Amino acid sequence: MREEDSTRTGNQLPDPDQRLEAAIAEIRRAIKNVRFGSVEITIHDSRVVQIERKEKVRLEPPARLRTQ
What we know:
This protein is an alpha+beta fold. The chain has 2 helices and 2 strands; from the N terminus they run H-H-E-E. The termini are far apart.
């Protein structure tokens, strides 16, 4: 995660609260940027290690908007 990397000082890792806040910020950003799709969060050892955003692009209008 970008924010987590920026909070490192030398070889010292940020504390768990800082990692959690950085993960929450990334999750919010992912949700905010998806109109139709999903956000998947991968957790290992109680830590968020990956956030995956999948977005659908719909090429046809919804059925309620189609003229019959």
